[in-house]
Amino acid sequence: MKIFIDTAIIKEIEWAEERGLIDGVTTNPTLLTMADRKLGEVVHDVLNIVKDRPVSIELVSQTTDELVEEAKTIVKLAKNVVVKVPMTDEGMMAVQQLEERGIRTNVTLVFSPAQALLAARAGATFVSIFVGRLDDIGKNGMQVVRDTVKLLKNYEFKSMVLAASIRSVQHVEEAALAGADIATIPLKVLIQMYRHELTDKGVKKFLLDWEKVPK
Ligand code: G3P
Fold it and tell me: What is the whole-number distance in angstroms between the Cα of residue 127 and the centre of ligand 1?
């Protein structure tokens, strides 16, 4: 499974890049508020680090024509820009036009296999399923990922299933087991993936025992 980092904070992207963890970056307006810098500066810096892998930037227009125009402007920033389009009627019409023009799209705010099917039919490059937000309302977010993986495979759609709104290491593991193509992961969870209490305990014990080895 590929790993995207879900952030607009440059230090976080650098941290993951140093460790060879990034296959792409996803941002959204909420994440951009956390970066607390001007949009142009953030995007410039992200694209500078992640030159050759997809960087998703969210469109904020409402109508199909406006979404298409906004996308055409944004993709001029760099060849690896992918536009995030909301899972709406207008959005899916925009996705069709954008993909026909060779502009890659990430359909965002997908919460059901039915929505994923429509996004795939529109030709989306990525279909982002928001696992954590479904869990938040008492649904099983990962089941939507599992069902969507199966559904897109049944009909040989080319769209990639992107598990988003990832909140835990368990989400990452389950997304990989479900066969998601990508998980977009916040830094906090990436760091947690390295950790296990038995690893920490084992490292300490081996170091203590090493001191006792006659040398
Ligand atoms: O990639 C989508 C993600 O940023 C949403 O995550 O935690 O705000 O639901 P969250």
Answer: 14
